[in-house]
Amino acid sequence: MGGVSGKLVWVLLVMCSSWLIAAVHAQQAATTDPIEVAALEAILGRWGKTTSPLWRMSGEPCRGVPVDGSTDLDGNPKNNPGIKCDCSYNSGTVCHITQLRVYALNVVGQIPAELQNLTYLTYLNLDQNYLSGPIPSFIGQLTALTELHVGFNPLSGSLPKELGNLTNLNLLGISLTNFSGQLPEELGNLTKLRQLYTDSAGLSGPFPSTLSRLKNLKLLRASDNNFTGTIPDFIGSLSNLEDLVLRNCKISGDLGAVDFSKFANLTFLFLGNNSLTGELPDGISPSLTNLDFSYNQLTGSFPSWVTQNNLQLNLVANNFILGSTNIGMLPPGLNCLQEDTPCFRDYSFAVDCGSNRSIRVSDNTMYELDSTNLGDSSYYVTSQTRWGVSNVGKLFQAPNDSKIIHSGEKIQNAVDSELFQTARMSPSSLRYYGLGLENGNYTVLLKFAELGFPDTPTWQSLGRRFFDIYIQGELKEKDFNIRKMAGGKSFTAVYKSYTTTVSKNFLEIHLFWAGKGTCCIPIQGYYGPLISALSITPNFSPTVRNGVPKKKSKAGAIVGIVIAASVLGSAILFGIFMVIKKRRRMAKQQEELYNLVGQPDVFSNAELKLATDNFSSQNILGEGGYGPVYKGVLPDGRVIAVKQLSQSSHQGKSQFVTEVATISAVQHRNLVKLHGCCIDSNTPLLVYEYLKNGSLDKALFGNGSIKLDWATRFEIILGIARGLTYLHEESSVRIVHRDIKASNVLLDTDLTPKISDFGLAKLYDEKKTHVSTGIAGTFGYLAPEYAMRRHLTEKVDVFAFGVVALEIVAGRSNTDNSLEESKIYLFEWAWSLYEKEQALGIVDPRLEEFSRDEVYRVIHVALVCTQGSPYQRPPMSKVVAMLTGDVEVAEVVTKPNYITEWQFKGGNTSYLAMSMREVAALEAILGRWGKTTSPVWSMSGEPCRGVPVDGVTGLDGNPKNNPGIKCDCSYINGTVCHITQLKVYALNVVGQIPAELQNFTYLNYLHVGFNALSGPIPKELGNLTNLNLLGISLTNFTGQLPEELGNLTKLQRLYTDSAGLSGPFPSTFSKLKNLKLLVLRNCRISGDLGARFFIQPAHWKLSLLVYPEQLAIYSTSRAKLPPERHSMFTRFSRINRSIRGSDNTMYELDFTDLGGSSYYVTSETRWGVSNVGKYFQSPNDSKIIYSNEKIQNAVVSELFQTARMSPSSLRYFGLGLENGNYTVLLQFAELGYPDSPTWKSLGRRVFDIYIQGDLKEKDFDIRKMAGGKSFTAVYKSYTTTVSKNFLEIHLFWAGKGTCCIPIQGYYGPLISALSITPNFTPTVRNGVPKRKSKAGAIAGISIGASVVGLAALFGIFMFIKKRRRLAQQQGELYNLVGRPDVFSNAELKLATNNYSSQNILGEGGYGPVYKGMLPDGRVIAVKQLSQSSHQGKNQFVTEVATISSVQHRNLVKLHGKNSLKLDWATRFEIILGIARGLTYLHEESSVRIVHRDIKASNVLLDTDLTPKISDFGLARLYDEKKTHVSTGIAGTFGYLAPEYAMRRHLTEKVDVYAFGVVALETVAGRSNTNNSIEESKIYLLEWAWDLYEKEQAQRIVDPRLEDFNKDEVLRVIHVALLCTQGSPNQRPPMSRVMAVLTGDAEVVEMVTKPSYITEWQYRDGNSTNSESTTSEFSRQKEIDPLTMSPTITGSSHDGSSSNSSVHVFLWLMLVYAFCAAVQAQQAARTDPAEVAALDTILGRWGLRASPAWNISGEPCSGVAIDETGVDNNPNINPAIKCDCSFNAGTVCHIIRLRVFSLNVVGQIPEELQNLTYLNNLYDL
């Protein structure tokens, strides 16, 4: 039998091997035809495109997605450019490219000739690019094509006749192109063609008769071409047509030539805008639903079918005979919409589009209602036939076909906001008609506001709407975009005004959609023109009476207004009262909740203002790149530190979010405590605990009063190490701090270290080896791999810790230039001493005594932590063990290479080292600022190459060199280069000036101005003593100019204007004798001007500027200044002649060419103007701009022919105005930057607008406000108050925008005209008061009542707006840091099915626990407090308070599991996890906690089987300084420590005891008491000690464990027995337990069995007869995942031999198991790269997997691979779908990702590119 069994084994092994070989062979794929590969590569190369992330040119293109067979190219938008292949050729060995898609990628150029080599193409899509030139004739060689898309390109020339060779085509698309000539006759060969799109293709000539052969044609769209001839007679033979659109094709002829009744399937027939004649056909197809014959020359009467149900019919602008017999067959007014048929004589009208009510607006114009819901081809005319409207087009795939849009949003910039509550939208063509207008010139005013696309950061805000505007057939606006014209904002009014002529009593306004913009945002079928209101007014005196209804009595109107206003005011007051009452009730409820669970960590801005004395500068503790930090005191006495985000710091804002999210997720005694934050201020605020002793660097390196002895320093080092251990290994989120340094370690009153400043912290995935990221940190603490290669792991923090540890030992910073050369760099000095075995020589000489062993250990650890390779550095947990002596310090063998490279062999610091430091410093600076080098030089290799050393141009002479450097390579005989010039100019850099800048000691030129730099100016700039130019203008610095700048004695030019600086000028500036340029305008300086002696050189030109309110004028001095006196001031303008505007306003001239600092006042002293500033390098200094361009959107275009510009500050003054409220109207148009595609169009003008000193517009950009266009009028209106008969309008240039386009010195504010009008009835007229009248009193009463009502409405609006803004800000914060743990009862009722008994998971003294599911898919466990349980209520408070104050990866986030089979490796990790969690609670949490109820049922397992300690209901805080706490006993029998159970003495050792019990249970797979087994084993502890004493400890191992690590098992048993010692002093702390379990420390030998066990037993070892105890244990009802799995039992063997058949059977089973194992290893698993990417994507977006699939473990399981649909299933969102057919069914790839309508905020994560098999990403 042995031979037979052996043969069987071999046979089975051969079969398995064959199976594996076949599987490998099956994976050998076919190769792509190399000719096609070369052609494809050439095509993409010519177009400057690369492959999509889903496939690649290198290697084999036809791999992966191109051959997956599951989706076509249109089904996978990410596959663009994309291909599909067919690999069935040559017996599956050759692939051919069958589909090519290069869609909407703005490809430029012609169609490449290489395309003809792709002869197997069946699908070619080149739509929506910028391809030019003709379609090449070789296109006819691609005869396999079934679909050809080349539309939406500027292709030109004639269509090649070779298109007729593509006889397999069923779709041809050439729409929206620039072709010329006729359709080739050869198109008649395409007999399989089903869809032909030729609309807007530029074609002409007649339709070829050969098209009659296209019998399969279902869709023909040929609109907007220049075809000639009659309507093709062959159209009638194309009986399969369903969609026929020949609109605006220039065709003519008799409509009766076509029998439209033959089209059985025709639904859409659009023949409008042609020259068709004849009468309407007698019959049409019954399937027709939309018919458009408008704008033709049709005559006759109407046939009976015009009344057909559901038929949308448009017949406007024809010559029908409308008699009394047939006029009633159609909607009224059609007679007025016929050609040359004037109706009612009229001269104006206005329409509120889409509104169901008429509105009279502020200028007394009556806007009529327009509520008819027009169909796809229909019209409407008013009953008085004054105007009409028509619509043509059907919304594609729209859920509803309504074309009237409603909005409740407040409209910005609207004079009459009611007009914008509705709008009319059309899918194609929307026309408004003026009927019977008196001939003459008219002003057409169109009013728009985008109502469909919200401004919120969601996908719905991505919508874009484009359309064209025609007035009387003349194109006025091409690609008009409402939102763009409104400065990129929705819900903002846009006004467009045009002048036109009515000559035939008929006016037409045509809004036309040409197919551009989005189609499906916010819903499917949402596009086309949209208009809110329009008005038509004559520019002449009418001779006819208008058809507007007569006005009613004024008295009745006044009474009605007064009564209505009074009622409205009362209603509003009542509403305010109810809102306040409701808020108070809610506040009371919240207060009750806060009293129960503690005040939430959200402070109001008012609270923090009060705490910090309104953010007084005297309370500033310091300032960083983030912003200033203030000291404050809360009302409860807590001293706090408040971090304020500076407004200009965009990086700071992201840092704020990072810091809140990070600190909210981590809590540890060595991490700074976050009290809360504030988000209702303009600048977000963080509230920290205030640490009196400040930062470690001040204590170590400063001259403070804190003296740190060695014991304190050692504890500080240990504390920092423990804090980093928590961040890296124990926190629920893994964090790299990235900026560990002495100044980021704060000391509390006990000198306990706290790691602070998480602004640069970065989360990381422990499964990744590293993360590539931008450099952030501080020079001197950066690990080499991070500084040089941007590789980020937690070992970056380990390196920085080593630096800080050495600094603490040495009592100095890592770099100190004041020391002798060999000691400048701490690392080099330390290594030098270490190699000489003199390491203790670096110890701070201020330390009088210290432990030599501890110091030596710290130095060793520091040197290990700062090894060059991150793999050589230990993890922080190992560092802690080494520092405490639990583990030996690893031997340091050699000095790191990065230090060796810095030195000569002799050990002296070299010039090469200085050069390398400059390179590292430069890379660090650019990395911190998020910038790369300019294209003319590179950081890789050698920066000082090429342009930086060309010696030809300076930095200012090469604008492309930005960021830029210049170098001097003359040092050490031309072998070393130093950076001498650095320019980072106007690049929107955010943050501080990095400390690394001090390493550029050879700099003579430094310009970092025109950036958003903030914080203080570092004093280290004073070390750059070679500087002759320093530019820091237009920045956001704070604080004073440092005195050290006085050391820059070579400085010639200093630019600090608009830098945000304060304080006095340093006296050290007196040393700057070479300084040539210094401007002190608007510096807030004071004092006697005569105290300074100015010698005026002959070449100076001094101008005088004084403001009227700042200078006392006496009679003796009046003659020295221009005359002025008070008078009435109303309007003024900016032009060299006076002009009367269309509203009869007289705009006065303003032609004075002001100097660099001068002013002008009119002769009547009604208004004045002043200018300050001189243009830099301007060829002429004129500040008046002239233009002859036509100004768009201008009411009075003459006002924009000139404009005044200023290089800095331009002010207009109103003098002697009557006090009151005024409207200030400013009129702008950009005149300097042409719209042509040249470099001159790149100019940007940005300035601020102040009215009466109040900032109205920040960074105002005329061109941006005009929708990106120059020569377009922009109107800005403001309301202001004049209280001292004086008005000031200030336009101020803050240095932003371009300076030198179109010429040098072209920048600053610019204004074309302005007017000031009172909002009241003036009481002065040439100094004589007006007589009052009763009408004024009546008007005053009505206006007053209206004002009261409006004020109340405004108050409510502002109140609601503020609440919404706060809610939005809180929502953004909550999305990042987690929703607050307060749920409504309604939410939890819904989640638990009204607390259904079927959902009960269990019950305790606290109350029942229910399972539930939140609306977002999270599965939760809900504990309910039983009403009768007073103890339970206290437990509730305890648990909320406790879990709120601790966070750890091994503390609960509830996910229950049972019926699990746990192998030994999993069990060991569970034991380790419980130990880590308890270590955190006892030793590392900011509050020290004893759990009191550690047991198996209180350890929950998540989906990864990670243990989570739960049920903090009995937890108790304790003071570590107390030896114990006496308290009532709480817990579970079997887990209670003896001193607690007997004497109620509570310490953390109670949890240590319970941990020992749980550890034994985990090893044994049973509970600590089991009465069902033999007596000697009932009590687990007794049984374990019996076996331990017999040296048989392994016998307690769970028999279900087939395989386990014996060493680990013995270690756990040893630890468990040690943890359950009788005396708490004999039990180790949990940190020691951790070290023993991980093997870092030796197990302490146990000597004797605990006395409490000895006392329980008889001498013969039997169990005690204590029935009460047994009964107590027997009453336990625990749920233990270790004991719920079925027990595996088997028979024991006595060693006797079995027969050979048994051997054969066992061999067969072994071989079968082997094959099964091979098969199991090949079972389908998700690609781990995709798992990691998916986990990261959901994490970045703050989402979790829905319950139907699981990101942990195996995502491609459950719903992800079954047939369940996810499109309409809200419970499966986010959702994925997988394909597990790859690699013979062993690998799954994610092919669909759906994250639909979840209000995800942020960018699309870059990890998405790793999901390369996605074919559906539509639902993002």
TrEMBL record:
Keywords: ATP-binding, Glycoprotein, Kinase, Leucine-rich repeat, Membrane, Nucleotide-binding, Phosphoprotein, Receptor, Repeat, Serine/threonine-protein kinase, Signal, Transferase, Transmembrane, Transmembrane helix. Residues 615-889, 1395-1643 form the Protein kinase domain. Residues 1660-1696 are annotated as: Disordered. Residues 1-26 form the signal peptide. GO terms for molecular function: ATP binding; protein serine/threonine kinase activity. It is an enzyme of class 2 (transferase). It is a single-pass membrane protein. This is non-specific serine/threonine protein kinase. It comes from Oryza barthii.
